[in-house]
Amino acid sequence: AQKVTQAQTEISVVEKEDVTLDCVYETRDTTYYLFWYKQPPSGELVFLIRRNSFDEQNEISGRYSWNFQKSTSSFNFTITASQVVDSAVYFCALSERGGGSYIPTFGRGTSLIVHP
Amino acid sequence: DSGVTQTPKHLITATGQRVTLRCSPRSGDLSVYWYQQSLDQGLQFLIQYYNGEERAKGNILERFSAQQFPDLHSELNLSSLELGDSALYFCASSPEAGGYQETQYFGPGTRLLVL
Question: Which 55-114 residues of chain A touch chain B by CB within 8 A?
Fold first, then answer.
């Protein structure tokens, strides 16, 4: 079973629509970190956010917001009023304290296409 | 700009050849990680170095090797290249040994095409 599941392979929206990217993770650890990265068409991976397992407070940064729910093991990412520049592949990742390796596990990514 | 640099940006070579990818971490970061991203395998962790020493090993082929130098830059050597090695190779860095709480900052990647 995958530790990080991003079930949406591709999402297509029209500019100004709100869009939510889902991330479901699996861990037996009580201490862990979750991350989101953005990979625009140019290819580089850009760090967006890090959240630890003890902080369930939702976070908002401009048009971006993140909803962390331990009860459902989800860390979803919402873009409000999407723009063409938001078109990218978005990756969710999990890093577990007791995982034996501190290397994060990445999901397969969700490709977001925002049409003008 | 993450502060992590990678050269070259693009590389085209032939099967059986050997190439070297280079990475310079962010200023002050001690750990360097190498990843391979291909369409069918997603983002795969290859290897990590911390302050010159190998720290963690992932799905790295025996044909691949890496090292981290005293100035903390790192090189990933790929030899006896096969068509299937065509991929985007990322380097990432983090401040310390790579604890679970650390954020990795990625470079722009090297796109390798093996013909």
Answer: 91, 95-97, 99, 101-104, 106, 108-109
> What is the C-alpha radius of gyration for chain B, rounded to an integer number of angstroms?
13
Tokens matching residue A5: 């599941």
For the stretch A84-114, pLDDT in tens is 999 999 999 998 876 556 788 999 999 999 9
A11-25, pLDDT tens digit by residue? 999 999 999 999 999
Nearest CA among B72, B59, B52, B65 for reference residue A105: B59
- B33, A106: Cβ pair inside 8 Å? no
B87-111 burial, b at 16+ Cβ within 10 Å, e below that, comes to bbbbbbbbeeebebebbbbbbbbbb
Q: Are A89 and A63 in contact (CB under 8 A)?
A: no
Whether B90 contacts B107, CB under 8 Å:
yes
